[in-house]
Amino acid sequence: QLYRDARECLTLLSQRLGSQKFFFGDSPASLDAFVFSRVAPLLKAKLPNGKLQQHLKSLQNLCNYCTSILSLYFPWDGGEPLASAPRAAGADGGEAEEDPHKWRNQLLSVLVGLAAMLGYAFLSGIVSIQRGSTGPAGHQPITLEEEEEEE
Q: What is the pLDDT of residue 136?
């Protein structure tokens, strides 16, 4: 049922777009941004089940619509779907050559995430650091309230 509804939605979008460049004429509107944000990943992504993607590829005007927006607003991408774009990785197509800074970026992402989580834990009071006693045995550490009272 879900695939049937999605296919129907894509077909209706294709019919509404017709031969126009954008949904409301020659200039893009917020609807174009919304539709592109949903259709382009469906067109470009590798999916485990390609039924919906194949249906989208059969709707040539929606494919041209995505390609047009990609080439207009994302010129460095070339505006071509990944499946037909030549690989920049070289002959072996190694994943390491696609992004030479992959490990650095992953490490930085983990460190930023860790710092954000620790910052949240400290600021929200989930984790706190208390000073230990440095005086002779048997003395209790002075709390912040006691320090304020002494002043």
A: 57
Angle (CA) 75-76-77 rounded to 5° is 90
Which is it for the CA torsion 40, 41, 45, 47, positive or negative? negative
Phi, psi of 18 (to 5 degrees): 60, -130
Domains of the chain (ranges; CATH) run: 1-74 (1.20.1050.10)
Rounded Cα distance, 75 and 83, in Å: 17
Q: Hunting for tokens 């020659």 — which residue is that?
A: 26
DSSP 114: H
Is residue 44 helix, strand or coil?
helix
Residues in the chain predicted with pLDDT less than 70, given as ranges, are 77-98, 132-151
DSSP designation for 25: B
Q: Are 13 and 39 in contact (CB under 8 A)?
A: yes
Res 83: pLDDT: 45
Which residues sit opposite 25 in a β-bridge?
A: 22
Q: Both tokens of residue 10?
A: 């894509």
Q: Provide the token pair at 116.
A: 């954000």
Residues 62-91: b if buried by 16+ CB within 10 A, e if exposed: bbebbbebbeeeeeeeebebeeeeeeeeee
